[in-house]
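Researcher: Please translate sequence to structure tokens.
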Amino acid sequence: MSSRRVFTSLAIPWLALPGLAIFLAAIPATAQSSGGDYLFLVGSGFLCDSGDSSACPGLVRSDQRDSYEMSGAGSLSTQGKTVTGAGTFTHKSAAGNALETGVWIASELVSFDSYGLAPGALIEQGLAPGPQRFGPKRLPMLPGAVPAGGRAVFRIRLLPLSGASKTALLQVNCALANVPSEHRVEGIRLTLEGGGPEFDEELSGRTLFLLTRSGAGAAVKAAAPEVDPNLAPAEVQE
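Model: Translation complete:
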């Protein structure tokens, strides 16, 4: 299948589904059946509804000043060490001109480090779950889903509208809960495999992990202001 056909089949549905609600609802139920399962958002979905123009998309820059804008969503399992995810990207020059645009598809979960649960994070950011008509912006939430911090590294394929595909490592960092000092900047990083510049200057963009394992709802009710790190799921080792 050509890159153009892949882009047409994947990118158009993403752009046509506000908030990615249908995408999130379509994630297989098996992805929520075992401990350590997460949904993730990268500069997309309800993260873009906060009124903060820097929330979407994720933006990262290299030393050469060219940049990647990326949005997407998916799910990962720390127990199965698997990931399902996709999104769109635009590679821009230092002058801001689009060099290429296309879609990315996650192919491997390289690692995941959990920072723990952050039950009140969405309300603090002006977003809240549920159908309430007034107050903070409401968002569709799966039963028991809990905001969590963490850092995931995915191996992805970049499929431009024209030209050859590339493989890369995409780092997604959500700076919530017990964040290590070296990872306090929220956002994304991108390393192209096979050479080329490293995109490691996080400029903007919000990210979020949502823990969907059984019993997450009970963990929220029991959580103190300082979340016990023992509640965090085990890390995926590289």
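Researcher: Any highlights?
Model: Residues 3-222 form one domain.
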